[in-house]
């Protein structure tokens, strides 16, 4: 199918989904307008979903939970905690008259998928790994440490561990070459990958050398705000990657949870962005920032092969947790 025709069909499907196919679990509730966004009462949805609700701080912080998962929401904050791991919402929680409200788009694309992970249509067999940067694109560098080299080394380690676990693995580059960003998810599509994972290391601006920790990105839902709004460039419309909104979030959460748990690094949370590799991925996709090369201590760890092997193991465990959560014969809550 020609690319232009496929993109037209994807766009029509995305618009139809956004308009008519809201999950049953968020329909039928009263919707209120806060700041131009539609919100619903957290308590209404929790009761209908047979979840428990408790105020941790009356009029401020509420917890929604069951035996598998707990979500903590705080008034005026966009950061929710999911069994202790941060996930950034697109809009802040609103508390009025001892009732908590959540933006409908956040409920649909960030909370519901974690309590009820959407099923992957097939068995997950093929993983596309995308070592960030390459060739003339060095990424961040400090002295002799180039992000492009370290992402390739990490991808090779992840590949080896995934192969041992029985997966087929595709790398978007296997050497120090430059690959156009659209070609990276394009290769994953051509090779029929079930998941796409872009690997990067972070850097902080001048005066922020102390920044450290891991963060994982997934695509921003249609019409919603990214964690870094400036990165949207005014574009909030549909992309091919939005077809996998629910699964993108579950994948990013399980990767972030595994990185924080297994590496003991600061949790910089799951974040939303419209990075080109995420927008164009036609399968569940996430982008991992495994740590800050700009931080002296963390940069030393990232350069250590033993630590990278440990990081690769954490990434593989996140992928395995995703597989357990979403495959048809073994779907279960994300926690």
Explain what you see.
By secondary structure, the chain is an alpha+beta fold. The protein has helices at 3-20, 42-48, 104-115, 147-164, 183-190, 245-263, 276-279, 296-302, 305-326; strands spanning 32-34, 37-41, 52-57, 61-65, 70-74, 79-82, 85-88, 94-96, 99-103, 126-131, 141-142, 145-146, 168-171, 195-202, 214-219, 267-273, 285-292. It folds into two domains: 3-115, Copper Amine Oxidase, Chain A, domain 1, CATH 3.30.457; 126-326, 3-Layer(aba) Sandwich (Aminopeptidase). Helix content is 34%, strand content 25%. Helix 6 crosses helix 9 (305-326). The model is unreliable at 15-24 (pLDDT under 50).
What is the CATH topology assignment of the largest domain? Aminopeptidase
Count of beta strands: 17
Q: What fraction of the residues are assigned to beta strands by DSSP?
A: 15-25%
Gross geometry: globular
Order of neighbouring strands in the sheet with most strands: 13-10-14-17-15-16
What is the CATH homology-level superfamily of the largest domain?
Answer: Zn-dependent exopeptidases
Rg, please?
A: 20 Å
CATH top level of the largest domain? Alpha Beta
What value does the average pLDDT take?
91
Distance between the termini: 39 Å
Order of helices and strands: HEEHEEEEEEEHEEEHEHEEHEHEHH
Range of helix content: 25-40%
- Please give the CATH architecture of the largest domain: 3-Layer(aba) Sandwich
Main β sheet profile? 6 strands, mixed
Structural class: alpha+beta
Number of discrete domains: 2
Number of helices: 9
Q: Are there runs of 5+ residues with pLDDT below 50, and where?
A: 15-24
């Amino acid at each position: 199918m020609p690319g232009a025709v496929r993109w037209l069909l994807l766009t029509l499907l995305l618009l139809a989904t956004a308009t008519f196919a809201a999950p049953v679990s968020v329909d039928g509730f009263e919707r209120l307008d806060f700041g131009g966004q539609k919100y619903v009462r957290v308590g209404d949805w929790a009761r209908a979903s047979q979840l428990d609700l408790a105020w941790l701080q009356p009029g401020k912080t509420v917890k929604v939970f069951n035996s598998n998962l707990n979500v903590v929401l705080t008034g005026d904050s966009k950061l929710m905690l999911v069994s202790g791991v941060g996930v950034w919402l697109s809009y802040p929680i609103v508390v009025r008259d001892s009732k908590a409200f959540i933006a409908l788009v956040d409920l649909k694309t960030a909370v519901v998928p974690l309590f009820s992970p959407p099923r992957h249509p097939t068995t997950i067999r093929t993983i596309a790994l995308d070592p960030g940067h390459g060739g003339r694109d060095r990424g961040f560098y400090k002295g002799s440490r180039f992000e492009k080299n370290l992402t390739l080394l990490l991808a090779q380690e992840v590949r080896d561990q995934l192969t041992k676990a029985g997966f087929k693995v595709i790398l978007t580059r296997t050497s120090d070459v430059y690959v156009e960003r659209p070609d990276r998810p394009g290769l994953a599509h051509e090779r029929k990958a079930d998941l796409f994972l872009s690997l990067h290391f972070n850097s902080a601006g001048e005066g922020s050398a102390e920044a450290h920790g891991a963060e994982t990105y997934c695509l921003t839902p249609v019409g919603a705000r990214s964690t870094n709004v400036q990165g949207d460039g005014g574009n909030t419309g549909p992309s091919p990657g939005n077809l996998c909104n629910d699964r993108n979030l579950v994948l990013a959460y399980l990767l972030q949870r595994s990185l924080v748990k297994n590496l003991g690094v600061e949790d910089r949370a799951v974040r939303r962005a419209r990075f080109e590799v995420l927008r164009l991925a036609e399968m569940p996709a996430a982008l991992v920032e495994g740590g800050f090369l700009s931080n002296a201590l963390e940069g030393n760890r990232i350069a250590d092969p033993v630590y990278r092997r440990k990081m690769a193991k954490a990434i593989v465990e996140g992928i395995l947790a995703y597989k357990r959560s979403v495959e048809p014969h073994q779907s279960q809550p994300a926690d």
